[in-house]
Amino acid sequence: MTLKSFVQVQPDSHFPIQNLPYGVFRPESGSTARPGVAIGDYVLDLSEIARDGLFDGPALKGSDCFLQPNLNKFLAMGRPAWKEARATLQKLLAATEPTLRDNATLRQKALVPMEKVEMLLPAVIGDYTDFFASMHHAKNCGLIFRGPQNPINPNWFHLPIAYHGRASSIVISGTDIIRPRGQGHPTANSGPYFGPSLKLDFELEMAAIVGPGNELGRPVDVNEAADHIFGLVLMNDWSARDIQAWEYVPLGPFLGKSFGTTISPWIVTLDALEQFACDAAKQDPAPLPYLTEKISKNYDISLEVEIKPAGHEASCVVTRSNFKHLYWTVTQQLAHHTISGCNLRPGDLLGTGTISGPEPDSYGCLLELTWNGQKPLTLNGTARKFLEDGDEVIFTGFCKVTHYNMFS
Ligand SMILES: O=C(O)/C=C/C(=O)CC(=O)CC(=O)O
Ligand SMILES: [Ca+2]
Ligand SMILES: [Mg+2]
Question: What positions does the domain Fumarylacetoacetase-like C-terminal occupy (predicted)?
Fold first, then answer.
């Protein structure tokens, strides 16, 4: 039988009882930040549930992990605690369970209408790394930035390439991004351009939130890497293409990507995503043993980007992609990150890289969608090569149950 909650959840809601993503919120402005999970149009306040002693399993009983203003302590506790919390919350929110359903005082305190809350960054993010794991994106960027000779560097097929991003400028969805100023790529015989970026772009990504870290000098085995990943967020790696194209040789992206990176407020756990797992892409050449997974999986997560042009009421879908298009899995990314001995810490953020699919209408950024401005998009009758001031960029990710077992 399908698990149902006593909390009313609309059929098209992203937050049924099977999901229960984690975030950090203030119930009203000025109140303290605390962890919560999304259920229908409500946020369940985990500090209230903890204060009432309802986390009563061996890992969480008496723990103050939900009395913190961020999720780092809970992230550090690892999968046994995450599984226990999920089981406790699914039981507590179930239609058949009276504990919270029939306790009006606790319900009043613990279930906060989502429209009233202020969402905050879910974790203190010490370090942020951005990978480059979609072959379609790598190929298209290569064609645009480097030309048709070998658009994908040979190393790309042997290791998940990444650069170290800037953690200080990671912001929560809804935060305004200020157009960066900097040096842009020279055109024709001129010197470099200086001024506000003329090629401001989004990048459709997701990112892994690291749970337990690893000690310096002790790499994580690729087959255990999933135990170090709590879940996934949506991520927009805002990019200034003119700054990037000029500065990135030979050390990689710097100021063209450091002026803002947006993440979604909700972390969808790997446990919730498990039922949407699918086979990962076939890798040819076979990766080295330290990157070879016994079970190599991706997740079937539909992704969409809409742009609401400045001054317009309606938004337009500009791309539809899917997480499963990634060539390198998030577990390979994490294992590769630590193979040198580099230590990860709870709350670290590992961006997947832009998730472009094979078709032109599944490309994950305007650089590809407009082919560096050569083929503008038309949005509600307005042309766009890159983003303009006041444009709003909306990312959506969702998983669909495509069939039910008739006997369940
Ligand atoms: O091919 C390049 O020169 C760079 C491409 C990127 O935009 C790098 C990046 O942020 C990685 C990604 O999002 O896939
Ligand atoms: Ca990126
Ligand atoms: Mg960025």
Answer: 130-393
